[in-house]
Amino acid sequence: MNTSLKAIINAKLIVGDEIVEDKILLFDKRIVKIEKKIDLDQIEIIDAKHHYVSAGFIDIHIHGSGGADIMDATPQALQTISKTLLQTGTTSFLATTMTMSNEVINKALQNIQQHSKKVLGAKIIGIHLEGPFINPAKHGAQDKTYIEPANFKLIKNYMQEIKMITLAPEEKGNETFIKDMSKKYPHIILSIGHSDASYAEAKKSFKWGISHATHLFNAMNPYHHRKPGIVGAVFDSDVSCDIIADLVHTHPSALALVQHVKKDNLLLITDAMRAGCMKCGTYDLGGRRVEVSKGKACLEDGTLAGSVLQMNEAIVNMLKYTSMTLIEAINAVTRIPAKKLAIPKGELKVGYDADIVIFDENLSIIKSIIDGEVKYQCLDY
Ligand SMILES: [Zn+2]
Questions:
Q1: Which of 20, 31, 43, 161 has its CA 20 to 30 A from that of 231?
Q2: 287 Cα to the center of ligand 1, angstroms
Q3: pTM of the model
Q4: Residue of 214, 246, 259, 361 lying closest to 311 (CA atoms)
């Protein structure tokens, strides 16, 4: 038997903007064929039992899960997060750092550089540097003691791994940094976030090279009809943005609004911290104490401190509270982030990586497949 080739049959395949029910998905490490008739002799068959099959989910903003955090800076932490995420449908993610001392950030970056390829679950496809180049006025759960002007010194050894930087363009010195970065490293997504930029400042920064906005509405000035701020600037431009659809960071009405305005320029993220997929209790986030209860993670003063959201739950919330269709919601966690990162993933398309999820109509994950290998199987199915 050719063990490397597998076929998924009896599936509702989410292919492009369609749900296809009469085709077979053939893959090895990559997607090989999507056709009605395939000779299945000598091929391992996976029966999807008429459940949905899509490309694996991609989370561009996640700090931790399963009790581990990227800032723990250990190979075991990466392994724990990677394995835990399989049950949420996430098959690849950007390991997201926090605002801490240069020494601690450097350790975390080094750990990712050395060990990210060895993880056995969801793949680490790069680094998202969230801070320390942010505005102290909008630090949120980031420790403002360590905020500093944007500079290459901290990141220069990791330019291959870094795929995204969240920063505040209005802070002194950051304009030059953004312009330099977008010229020299156009593959790195520069995202406005933890920022207090005005509408005009935000608009200007889009010309310098900012192409995205991090957890829209959170850690930025709110929309006002005479002072539309960052939200207004994102709304009347083609800059993409992401949201934490956990119903804690963002009200259902705001989710519906941003979906209506941004359409296929909207991505879903979890921004999950170490308590993701864990029980309620007390946890650490970037050296600060966080209480987790009722789906909410807060610092002692009540400031929201990351989420405990799972990607499959984010999809459920969008379907429930906005006019998003299932295909659109899946695109917001597959095709759209993959396009933004310019990687051959996020679609069931010939030649693309065989990162695949099988899930039911409630978005419960039945199987997660990474590089063509089944890495997670829900025992209830
Ligand atoms: Zn975050």
A1: 161
A2: 14
A3: 0.96
A4: 246
CATH number assigned to the domain with residue range 2-54+345-377, chosen from the 4 options 2.30.40.10, 3.30.70.940, 3.40.50.1860, 2.40.360.10: 2.30.40.10
Q: CB atoms < 10 A from the CB of 372, how many?
A: 18
CA of 212 to the centre of ligand 1 (A): 14
Tell me the CATH number for domain 56-341. Answer: 3.20.20.140
Q: How far is the CA of 63 from the centre of ligand 1 (A)?
A: 6
Burial profile 297-325: b = 16 or more Cβ within 10 angstroms, e = fewer: bbbeeeebbbbbbbbbbbbbbbbebbebe
Sign of CA pseudo-dihedral 250, 130, 330, 357: negative
> Which residue of the set 271, 284, 371, 380 is catalytic?
271
**pLDDT per residue of the chain (381 residues) written in tens, 0 to 9:** 445 899 999 999 999 999 999 999 999 999 999 999 999 999 999 999 999 999 999 999 999 999 999 999 999 999 999 999 999 999 999 999 999 999 999 999 999 999 999 999 999 999 999 999 999 999 988 899 999 999 999 999 999 999 999 999 999 999 999 999 999 999 999 999 999 999 999 999 999 999 999 999 999 999 999 999 999 999 999 999 999 999 999 999 999 999 999 999 999 999 999 988 888 899 988 888 999 998 899 998 989 888 999 999 999 999 999 999 999 999 999 999 999 999 999 999 999 999 999 999 999 999 999 999 999 999 888
Active site annotation includes 242: no
Range(s) of the chain covered by CATH 2.30.40.10: 2-54+345-377
CA of 306 to the centre of ligand 1 (A): 6
The two structure tokens encoding residue 210: 């900012």
Grouping H, G, I as helix, E, B as strand and the rest as coil, residue 65 is strand
> How remote is the CA of residue 39 from the centroid of ligand 1, in Å?
47
